[in-house]
Each structure stands twice: as structure tokens, then as C-alpha cells.
Design brief:
Blueprint: E1 34-40, E2 43-48, E3 61-64, E4 77-85, E5 93-101, E6 107-117, E7 132-133, E8 139-144, E9 150-153, E10 162-170, E11 176-179, E12 190-196, H1 215-220, E13 224-230, H2 246-251, H3 256-259, H4 282-296, E14 301-306, H5 312-327, E15 332-337, H6 347-358, E16 371-373, H7 383-397, E17 401-403, E18 406-407, H8 410-417, E19 423-426, H9 439-447, E20 451-456, E21 461-462, E22 467-468, H10 475-486, E23 491-494, H11 515-529, E24 538-543, E25 561-562, E26 572-579, E27 583-589, E28 592-598, E29 601-608, E30 614-620, E31 623-629, E32 646-649
Length: about 650
Amino acid sequence: MVNRYLAPLAGVVLLATLGTAAVAPPAQASAAAPVSLTFAAADDVFVSQAEPAKSFATATWMSVCGTGCGSTATGQRIALTRFKVTGVPADAEDVKVTLDVVPARTTDTTLSVRQATGSWTEAATTWDTRPTIGATAVTSHTGFTAGTTARLDVSSAVKGDGTYAFALTGADATTTVLMSSRETGNRGPKLTVTYTGGTGGEQTDGPLPFTLAGKAALRGSARKVFAHYFTPYPLSLDNQAPATDYYARNYLKPEGESGKHAAYGGLLRDRPLGRDPIAVDYTVADFKAEVRQAIAAGLDGFTVDILSVTSAHWTRVQNLVKAAEAVDPGFKIVLMPDTNGLASVDSATLAAAMAKLAASTSVYRLADNRLVVAPFKAEGRTAAWWSDWMKTMETKHGIKVALVPCFLDFNKHRDAFAPISYGFSNWGNRNPAANAGLGTNIDRAHGMGKIWMQPVSVQDERPNQGIFDEAGNTENLRATWKGAIDGKADWVQLTTWNDYSENTQFAPSRNAGWTYLDINAYYLTCYKLGCPKITNDVAYLTHRIQPVAAQPTYQQTKLMKLRGGSTAARDTVEVLTMLTAPGKVSVTIGGTTQSYDAPAGVSARTFRLQAGAASATVTRSSAQVAKVVSPYTITATPYVQDLHYRAASSGR
């Protein structure tokens, strides 16, 4: 079983050389000015428990009070108001929504806002015919001054354009009187939506071979796809230009960080897409950019590896949560405390830290409001320890937890954790041979009444640890998705979004651009909604830039060796095609051209790796329909050992 935490937890940097062409960084958009939209109530009325059949539709005020209002135990009054929101763009960011009401009296009362569901009309609604009112308050406000607008934050309940109805309830016998829309002076309830326009960065840079379903359709699926976020490697570590930033200076060069990575030729072989320096707070801005990238790829959220509750890694976790909430609270962050990094953190401290994060609307909860916590290497603490921790979360912080432990050894620990767990996951493997029978674990979890989160991976090469898995070009990616789909896994975790020290990243990067996310989007759609129709001819090319056995010219003293139990190492170039109809594929590698007939739909063919350039062209009826040219030259004499698979797409 893999153990990713043999890698150091230092910061990450971008490598600008290694003899390969760099992917052009995306352009930076300028900061947009905030936009504010205000909507008057389309309907508002109050109902009275003391007069259950009476309509108050003609009143110019709304009366709200709790049980005991009017010195009677059945005197509760509830106000209802409804708004129709239009004109909020789908890519709006930093959205804040307030329900603005004007009180007619000065009181120290507390008013709560709850969602109202079901049909109702202003004219006909009475206490007896009132709509269903949510048990959980969206927000509450205490203290009202006559004639002064009170603003109640309802951001968590408003998701963009649509119709929204709210019930206003009181907490005690004192009446809160609010102006209604019939009161002269335009002092009735209003909904104010403030946002900044999106940058457009959530749109991918080129066409997919199919039409990716909209966000609502993808998120409407009960099957969820998260990507594992590793905080040591954000988009930038120092807000410098990619040619000279910390990645380039220290992680991608053997002499970086005063030579501490020289033995293995540098810490990293790939890096995030670079960008120019930006003037705003780049730490949060970069997290927003990554959230947009993940949304564009169809993901439901990130599982965030929590390595610390005090260090820079903890700050990054908090900023990631903040960024997700600003860009789109529907993009969820799953809390994944890491028992390696948190080995010295006690239960109470961890509970307080997780409760702090859980206050955000972007942190993932189940429909029953349980907080999802998926500890990495859960067996690093005993099941009894986790059980006590969950009790602390509930008794001290009022938070019920749905535990989904991610094991390094699922079968050894599943029985002990079953009584306290909502579901199970494991970290998994990164080669086709080890991923041939994934349905077994899924069936075991389902047989125990638990959901299963299946790891899906691309590859795994670790220079600093001296090991690598043979992914077989995209074979491992396709095999792990097949296991998740055929086995009917409940959730999927892409392992990983950005762990560049282990070269497991899906994120847009220098070595692959968007290619792995584009391929992943097809299988993600198959998993969630059924496989989509291929509407655009696209060819993907994957290969290493050296034969596995090639010796580097740099004097490395530590070379990567094949992990035990892995698929046998191979030297191949793969052409993966997604075609609308059969076509002829011509593949040129190192000056040698070979051709084959590719069927409609998805197919893959491999060819011998040779030094030189690699490209593939798809023709149909003598017309070229797709062409991909790899920007990465293959060499028999690499500078440092580099076994990371490069990827390119004809669609970009």
C-alpha cells in the first residue's frame, strides 16, 4: 500500500526548464468592481396563530413575535416574504445577499430568517394555509431601531437567479413590527445582492470531445467527485514570474534550496501553470483560480489535506475555504485531517480547529447537516480515539460528524471503524496491475452499509523517495475510472489535485496543461450521468521524455526504481482518440510514421518510444479532423531522470 508521506512537506516551486517547452500561462484578468442589485418583495404578508383563518394581506406592516405574543400561548405571528432574483451571472464571485427590512418600532427583539417552501399567495395565506417553514434558521438578528434598515445576511440561501421565499419568526413575546410593501415610502422588504463579476477563468481553454453538462446537472447527481488538495503546492509561493519564482529557482533545479535535492535531481518534475505577479492578495486570488479550474472540470469540490492547525499549511486551508465560499459555496470542501501531520495534536485542539472551518457554507455537510470528515490515514488513531473526538465535536461544538476514514489499509481496519463511520475510502494504488479488481472493496463497504469513496489516479513518480509506478500512459487513469463506474462507488476522490512531489496531479500543469482534466471530464460524466455522445474529434498524446532505463547526464546519486507489485515498466507513446466516426490515425515518433484505423468513440493505441518529436493526425475521407503535436522532445540522454508522463491534446 502506498505511503505518500515519505515525501517532505516543504513549499513547492515551478521549473522553467528541463529541456521541455512550457505551457503558456493564462492571462490575468483585472479585478472587477462590485455590482449591487436590489429586488423589492414580490409578495409579503404576516399570519397570526390567534386568528388562524384571517388574511392580513391589506396591512401596511408585518407583525412578528414568538409564542406568548399578546399574552396568549397561541399568539405566535410569522411574516412571509418572497423575491424574484434575476440578472446575477453564473460566474459571479464574492456574492453577499442581505434581506433588508425597516422596523416601525425600536425593540431589542431577535428575529430569525427561515426558508419557506410550498405554494402560497399574499392574498389568501392565513395561519392555517401557511407554507412549510424550515426548522433551521438561515440567520438571526437582534435589536431594531425604528426607521433604520436592518440587514440580515441570507447569502447561504440564495444561489443565483430564482425565486426565494422566507419566513421571519420571533423568539419571545415582544412584537417586532416591520414595514410591508404596501407601506408608502418604499420601505418594504428588499433583497440586496452584491457580487463581483467572474473572470471567465472557469471556462476551459479549448473544446472537449463532448458537451460538458452544466453545473446544476452535474451537481444534481448523488455521485460526487472531489480532488485531493495538498497545501504545500499552491499556484504560487512568492508571487513571482514563473521563470524566476520559487518553483523555478528551488524545486525544479538540482541545485535548488542550497542543493538539498541534488541527490535526486531536484524535488519536482512538474509545476502548476505559471502566471505573472498580481497586485491583489495573491494567496486568496490563487485559491480562487484553482476553485474555478476545478469547477470548469466538473468537480464537486476538494478534499483538503490538513497537515497542521497552526502553520502556513493551516493558513492555506483557511484561505482555500474562504476562496471556495467567495467563488461558489456550492463547490464543497471536505475536511481531511492528516494523522501524520497532526500526530501531536490532541482531540480537543483538532475539534476546535475543525469546528472553526465548519462555520463556512463551503464546507461539505450531508443533507441531514452532518459534517463530513474524511481523515487521511485514519488508522493513525484508533477507532476509539475517533469516537471520542466525534463526541467532543457534538457535545462541545454542537456538530454531528459523518466520518469517512481514508485508510492506507482498508481491510485491516474496516471492522474496527464500521460502528462509527458513514463510509470508507482508501488511498489506493497508481498502476493498472494493482487496480484490476477495485470492485471488491466497494462491495465490502456496501455490504457493511457504508458508502465508498473510490480513488482515481493518473500516475505516481517520486524522485525524492526513489520509486515510481508504471501508469501505462493513460491506462491507469482509465482503469481506476472503470473500477469506480462498474463498482458503483458513491463518491470519487482524484488522488491528487496537486501533489507535485509525487507527480500524481490532475491540476493544469506545465507538463500536461489541461489534458488530464479533459480526459477525466469524459469519465466523470460517464460516472455521474452516463457516457456522453462524442461530438468533436479529439486526439490525446501521452509519453515520457526519456526511456525508463536512460541515464541522466546530471550526476544523480539516487534514481527512481519501479515499486514492487507495479505493472512492468514500459517505453511507449499512447494515442487516445475520442472520435465522432471511424478515422485513420497517423502517428510520427522520432521521424518514423505508422498508421492505423481508429473506431468511433474512445480507443487507445500504443507505439514504441523513440528519441525525437511525437505527433498524431486523424483524417476522415482524406480530410484532417484532428492533429496533436507534443511540445515535449524525447531524448535518450535526459539531464535529470524524469519519468513523469507528459500529455497534449488536439483540442487546445
